[in-house]
Amino acid sequence: MKPETWLPHVTVAAIVERDGRFLVVEEHTADGLRLNQPAGHLEAGETLQQAVIRETLEETAHPFAPEALVGMYMTHFERPGGEDVSGGVTYLRFTYCGASGTPDPARALDPDIVRTLWMSADELRACRDRHRTPLVMQCVDDYLAGRRFPLDFVHTHSVGHKR
């Protein structure tokens, strides 16, 4: 019998700030309606920057231009019958900050997204119970504290052949 393989889920998130307000999405989750940054999973063949650009566009209809990496975050959620041998799911999240353009009004949002909102940090703090994860506020706080790493902090190496 082959032992189960543990694999983290790699995700990306975008911090978009305009006039002291942050772009967030309200989305359907297994726990009901929750607030989150535009975020999602890294797909095969993508770089992290390509993933955050794609996810932000899909979830908000806003084009996104990453300017810096705010941080890398790891979190583990215990869930009965979860995906790994410990009964939970581990996420490794790369959060970028950057500028967004004008949303495309003709673009449909991802099916789980109910709407986009612009909220201040204080408004986000006041509704922590509605955040998808504690990382929502942690990423905003890190951004507000000035945490920035250059985009080339994470190097992507593409190999054209199998090892």
TrEMBL record:
Keywords of the record: Hydrolase, Magnesium
Membrane-spanning segments: none
Alphabetized GO MF terms: nucleoside diphosphate phosphatase activity; ribonucleoside triphosphate phosphatase activity; thiamine diphosphate phosphatase activity
CDD domains: NUDIX_Hydrolase
Cofactor dependency: Mg(2+)
A Pfam family annotated for this UniProt entry: NUDIX
Residues in Nudix hydrolase domain copies: 7-141
Coiled-coil residue windows: none
EC number: 3.6.1.-
InterPro entries assigned: NUDIX_hydrolase-like_dom_sf, NUDIX_hydrolase_dom, NudJ
Quaternary assembly: Monomer.
Family membership noted in the UniProt record: Belongs to the Nudix hydrolase family. NudJ subfamily.
UniProt name for this protein: Phosphatase NudJ
Organism: Paraburkholderia ribeironis
